[in-house]
Amino acid sequence: MAEAPAALAAGRAAAHRIRARHEFRGLRTVEHFFTVPLNHTQPGGEEITVFAREYVSSEHTEAEAAALPWLLFLQGGPGGRGNRVTSLSGWMKAAARSFRILMLDQRGTGLSTPADRTTLPLRGSAAEQAAYLSLFRADSIVADAELIRAALGAAPWTVLGQSFGGFCALTYLSFAPAGLKEVLITGGLAPLHGPAERVYRATFQRVAERNAEYFGWYPEDRDTVTRIARHLTAQEELLPDGSRLTPERFQMVGSFLGGNTRVDALHYLLEDAFVPGPGGERLSDAFLEQLHPHLSRAANPLYAALHESIYGQGQATDWAAWRVLEEFPQFRPDAAEPLLTGEMVYPWYFEQDPALQPLQEVAGLLAAKDDWAPLYDPEQLAANTVPVAAAVYRDDIYVDYELSMETAAAVRGLQAWTTGDFHHDGIAEDGEGIFTRLLGMVRPA
């Protein structure tokens, strides 16, 4: 079996402090800060802070809440902070009936020690920054979680992993199963082996199919997308941050295609695209303003910097999506009818996005890194005894169905619920129903 990270084997505890408590709109929150090793193989070295917010329904008295078991939520990403909610709804409403929810800001995000274009230069050279970021993958996140569980005095807990959070849950099952009571995964069964290219060959095909489905619903948008791409080739248009909107950056709006709850919003975005101007048609301020948040990684730079590394095990990813794109010319911005892209990350992100430009060399070093440690232990997963239930979406453009089912078959006892009713954002559409169903699968009557 693969060797567990040092912190998991050592059973150390993290320093813990509570900053504030609040109560509003039917919930109570507690703000937790934990001090953990930056490098879990060097527990006596540099330390960082990891933040987590506890959510409890105010329907429970404080004494009742203190007796509830913990549920740890692992967010999608990489680089996504924990959800900030102002009331309990969806899956959190269902979970809060019987759990204390711990919403983790994974290392480098939210109120945890930050990692972005402002803070990373404090690490030194590009090589030193890359070495620092190499400690921000799922293995470190899981080691953080185990130290946090010990600091809270929690028994083995329930974990809910969405998307990349599901990838982290598989790492948890691989290296620290004793910390888990049960695991629920939504849209997040990662491939356990193989190069990153196999992921992108599968997902590019699914994104192409989703484009066809979308343009079948909104055929007028097929012409609009082509017009915008051609316009951006001939005419400079600037986003609100002053950076240029290029055809390839515009194609990133394909991220809307990854969900049931957002896909139709793409049509409303595109209908605002053009307005007449003195020199001919231009893209409207309204369109550019609405577009910008979907193209900038200012809020989550780790997503771009570490995205391909989540598939890196023992070999370099070497900008896998960019290389595989050559096999799918219909996604080229100069194609006759260019398709919209999905979640893939390309090297030009670090040339065109102001939030990423300072990280260009760092990202290149991470792409070239060829000694990534294993993220999963297939032998341990094959012997798994922790109850696991996973929602697998047949048409998911981000986490491929076939690769997910391959992983489902490799984890002993994993129960997969497969459905075509939802896309990658299923828990945003019917979180209460999906959570209740998965919890029932790991807790049969």
Using brief descriptors, characterize the structure shown.
alpha/beta; Rossmann fold; globular
Description:
The protein is an alpha/beta fold and 445 residues long. The protein folds into 2 domains: 6-192 and 376-442, Rossmann fold (3-Layer(aba) Sandwich); 196-368, no CATH class. Helices cover 38% and strands 17% of the residues. The chain has 18 helices and 11 strands. The chain has helices at 6-10, 62-67, 90-95, 126-133, 138-152, 164-175, 196-217, 219-234, 247-250, 263-270, 285-295, 301-306, 320-325, 349-352, 360-368, 378-382, 401-410, 426-442; strands spanning 15-24, 27-37, 47-57, 70-74, 100-105, 157-162, 180-186, 274-277, 280-283, 388-393, 414-419. Strands 1-2-3-5-4-6-7-10-11 form a 9-stranded mixed beta sheet. Strands 8-9 form a two-stranded antiparallel sheet. Helix 4 crosses helix 15 and helix 7 crosses helix 8 (219-234). The two termini are 34 Å apart.
